[in-house]
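Need a sequence for this fold. Nothing fancy.
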């Protein structure tokens, strides 16, 4: 959390991006794109269509608490894209075809205030109107009525997602 908050505070006006990452397909220890998890980074918004968003910095731990580098983040993103294509091509599931590679949110006062209110956050995969998304919450257990009980931060739906 401290690394995450430090990077976010230092990059106001840029985008906090949660990327969906996973392992490669068919690894003996974790077959078929196992270990869906999150990588966190800060990006600038692309200036031209067709170009990638520029990674400003990578938060050095993923959602599993393991080390994350720029290279391992890019590899995990590539693995997730392969996973998405594999699911769509083999099962014709439009939900997965529509899923984005990650979600982004402008680093503004609202985001800074949210991340400064707690020293523990839990990330949950959710489905929203745009496909796979993520919600941050301060509790370790997710209840059906979670939105009514504790304010959750739906990461990505408040602005244009970037990949």
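Here you go.
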């Amino acid at each position: 959390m401290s690394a995450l908050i430090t990077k976010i505070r230092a990059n106001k006006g840029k985008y906090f991006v949660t990327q969906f990452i996973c392992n490669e397909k068919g690894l003996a220890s974790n077959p078929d794109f196992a270990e869906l998890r999150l990588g966190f980074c800060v990006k600038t918004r692309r200036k031209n269509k067709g170009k990638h968003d520029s990674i400003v910095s990578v938060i050095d731990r993923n959602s599993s608490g393991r080390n994350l580098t720029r290279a391992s983040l890019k590899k995990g993103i590539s693995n997730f894209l392969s996973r998405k294509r594999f699911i769509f091509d083999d099962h014709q599931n439009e939900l997965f075809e529509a899923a984005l590679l990650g979600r982004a949110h402008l680093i503004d006062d609202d985001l800074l205030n949210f991340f400064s209110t707690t020293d523990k956050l839990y990330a949950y995969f959710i489905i929203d109107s745009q496909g796979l998304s993520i919600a941050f919450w301060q509790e370790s257990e997710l209840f059906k009525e979670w939105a009514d009980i504790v304010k959750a931060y739906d990461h990505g739906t408040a602005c244009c997602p970037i990949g």
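For context: Residues 94 and 153 are 26 Å apart (CA to CA).
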